[in-house]
Fold Methyltransferase family protein.
Amino acid sequence: MSQVVKSYYDNNAEQEWNRLNNPYSKIEWLSTLRLMDRYLPDSGHICDIGSGPGRYSIELLQQGYQVTLFDLSSQELALAESRIAELGLQAEAYICEDARNLYVLEKEAYDGVLVLGPLYHVHEAQDRLGIIAHASRVLKPGGTAIFSFINSWGCLKAGVTEFSDSYRDAENIYKYLQEQQLNENEGFTECYFTIPGIALEEVRKGGFDIISYAGAESFLAGMSGELTRLFHEDRQVYDHLVQAASETSEAPQYREATEHLLIIARKN
């Protein structure tokens, strides 16, 4: 990842910790936890690549897994280590390194791998394939990985309410029908937006069989404003919707057009 991406996460560690608490991102959080619970092995060693401040690592540690946190940002890892210590938990290791350098990890050391973030920021296909292939290398035979991508199709839908002014130029609408490389002035930092077919093929090329895939926001994709309103005005309706969305994230009718595409794969 570039220095631009590293600086973004170094400067926004606390924001990253809090992000999954906001009313809309709560769906992503619950959907991802549900997939982890369903597809990761019941116990063992997990490498959380792109761990950020450790939200998912903490959940795994509390369930008894041995967890290694791997992240580009020293500030994110410092926050993770602090929060983990506050809870009386202990991670196996904290590794501050670029995800393109997964060769520093031991071969076949992990039962499961999470890659929930790094692929958002890698513009070059060769680099993404390298990350995926190394995720396969560090997994034990038959090990499970969960990869997350930003889905351009879902961002197109979200843009109707979040950045519709940009659609005054009709060309900007059609850009979201394909993969995109965004610079720091176009996205929240340097970003890569994919589409489902490309992402699935990259995971296969990296040495995996696809088990399933999901759209984290499910049928609530693009409804950030309305969900935030319901969170404050009708919590029961909000809770019911978010619960249902997290339970249906793998449904074929929803998973192709959400902002966060989650691919569950087994090392082949």
User: Anything to note?
Assistant: The two ends are 27 Å apart (CA to CA). The chain has a mean pLDDT of 96.
